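OP here, attaching both records as promised.
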Amino acid sequence: MLPTDGVMSFPGQTWEKVLSKVKKAVVFMDDRCSESLHWNGGAALLFEAGARNIKQFSSFEAGGQNEPKAVFVVSTVLKGKTADIIKDIISFSHFQYCVVFTTVPHSIHLLANNVTTDLEGNPVFDQFEEKLCEWMGDMNYTAEVMHAPVVFAPLTQQFHLLPAFSEIFPLLEVDLEAINEKRPEKKRFGSLMDVDMHSLPPELQIQIKSLASALSALFEFIGTREESFSVGPMSRLIAGELASHPQAKNRRKSAPNKASIVFIDRTLDLTGAVGHHGDNLVEKILSVLPQLPGHVTDIQVDMLELTHLKKTADTKGILAPGCLAQNQSATARLLWETMLVAKQKEAVMEVRRQLVEAASKENLPIKMSLGRVTAEQLCSYVQLFRDSWGALESHSGVLQLGLAAAQALRHPALPRWDACLAFERLLLQALGDSDLAEVLKQLLPIIKSSESGTDSSELSVDDLLVLLVYVYSVAKEACPGGADKEKHVEKVENELIGALTLRLTRQTSLSPLLQEITGVSGPEELTVEHTHSVLENMFETLRGVSHARDHLKNFSSVYTPSDGAHQATYRPLLKQVLEEIFHPDRRECPDVEHMSGGLTDLLKTGFSMFMKVTRPHPSDHPLLFLFLVGGVTPSELRLIREVVSTHKSGTQLLQGC
């Protein structure tokens, strides 16, 4: 099996162990594992394997009187809250057979229990099996605990997400301060690049080690020896952990294939993450449609248009939502891949083409129309299917994607996308002509606007916060300044905090983003003092964002100033890194750090100081994994594809985050 084929089949393979145990069982699964399953075939996989029911992993759930078997699938260590929930579920059920799967390997359970020595067998899992029997009420009942790395969500053949690690985000200066507070003064770190694994909070250590273990399992499965590289402090920690993973040593001796994996910190370029310059349909779908509950990678598609029901308060929520993950239909999968990486115009035309083809196959009375694709046109095509259950079932995947496109294109928040894009372009030019304080001042009139942001021409508070991230992510190199300018910036920041505090406390409702930032669920809970404090912390984080690239030499800027003939432009860091990797001269780049995996690599590095030794380079191998720590946008996926295509590299590129 080729490594690329192995990468595609590995996520499904990880679920095989779980599927072998679910027959006649009630399955309790946490959100992160559910999301992985969602992109690997969904609940149908479990039901086809014989599962009786699937329930949320919650203390408020339980098995029925006639359900003696339970399977738990969790993405956490089997202690604390996780153990409490399992105990609660078992206590209110009548189980005689319990199987627990955790994505966290046993070696990391030892670490979580402060056991530093290697022990034979799986004592932590064995102890938990005893607890399960105790909770079931009979030590003669059956309990099994095992590890299964069900963390991969394959969005396409070449792009995988790992929802279980969605909370791993690169460190910023505020995190360095928090780490240093707990250390003796003489042992404090000077920069984020000095931070080591042992200084991180235990929960984060466990997550990083679990991520490294999952990636190691992937490389084991595809028989590959990997060379790890990093760009950024968090990537350095993850790459180092993977390079020194204990189980990797044997693999590296005998693995027939070779690959490079490059980890890149998202915080090194947040401009690409928050900017509206991406001409991509899926980006807009993800931005404006509501998230699927419990998910971080999918959205809800309103399926009401596939019925004859009217949209009223009574019909709200009576239909299960559709989604973007379409695993059953090859046609829908191909359409999804096109939507993900194509430009918006190409994507909507492909959506229309697929809907027309589907309608033609079912002999539905479709009226062909050329020219610009509109949301109304897509909806009219979708509605042709609602009177034919067979046709609707056959083309369900394409219909859901078609509805997602239509609902995004006509969403009332979409006009603000163009408004944000226009403002970002203005700010980008202003950054070259003015200092940061003057640029930030341009945001004040908008923030002070009394509008709530619901009007299509007005920017919402969410939009304003995103614009601030955009500015601070490029500001350092665009507006370098001394102490006087720093004071001026601080003064304007205080004005912004005041204006935003006023704006926030006048909100009639809070978006999910604002709820997360403020830590409250409704505007009535927002006090002026709390809001002011939250915003002060936010600006401290933003200052950290502006310094995220301080340690870089070649990739220290994502901003190209105007030269009179050309406007100032944004230079994606991702593009810079890839162009450096695929440069025909195979130049050494100090910002792409190779993480040694053992004594041989260390000796090579040491000898290179005295004699000419070729250091490992990311382009050395025919397979390159790119891992974005903190997420990636659909526009960046297209950018990656374009860069690789331009360089006509023989390297196959696979992405993950």
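Record two, same layout:
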Amino acid sequence: MSQSALARETGVDRSTISQLLTGDGGRLPNAHVVGACAAALGVSADWLLSLSDRPESAARMLAESLTLTDAPRALIDEQIFAWHREAAGYKIRYVPATLPDMLKTDAILNWEYTPQLGRTPAQAINASRDWLDWIRNSSSDYEVAVPMHEMSSFAHGTGYYAGLDAQSRHEQIDRMLTLSRNLYPRLRLYLYDARRLYSAPITVFGPLLAAIYIGRKYLAFRDSARVQTFAAHFDHLVREADVSARALPAWLAELKGTIQ
């Protein structure tokens, strides 16, 4: 947009527009003029006044940095898989809502997803396989942090896992044992004590974005400061983990012995 067109758009003299855009003159135009020009140009007033290096308005920056996205029950829906592809080559940090879906057996997925109103068990199983294939072939490293009580509750068939038969629990622990060995160090799984530490289900896609799973939606952040905050939160879980990725197979083998 030319200075003349901007002057017409805002109803301000062209000389005033020139003063604002070039920084010439003894004083800056008043706030009304700056605001009108910023609105006409679709930029922020701070950027016009050289107070910010971001031309976007505050509303636009907020809209771009924070989004609310649908979250189908199976975690590899089209949107989150796109985020995994976007972050290829970066470390992915992941705190699941239950056990990590990509490590679950078909029997567990069938048991878990049968009551769901969203995806069918077959869709969940296919999604889990797709995710595992992606991890095997991706250039990304994956770190997963799970609360210890989640694993204990699963092994003993209590809480969320009440009614799950012992054979399915045995097979699931065996699968996690196998995958934690075979995929290490590409995939590293840590267990933390939820009595000392807490985390909502989150995924941090390198430096690009962080997504919180809140049930039917993902709350996704793209501004670097918040992404770094979530990454630091996850890294704290790993540093304070009671069971490291290296120690996990032995811990799982011991846990398996308690299944009845």
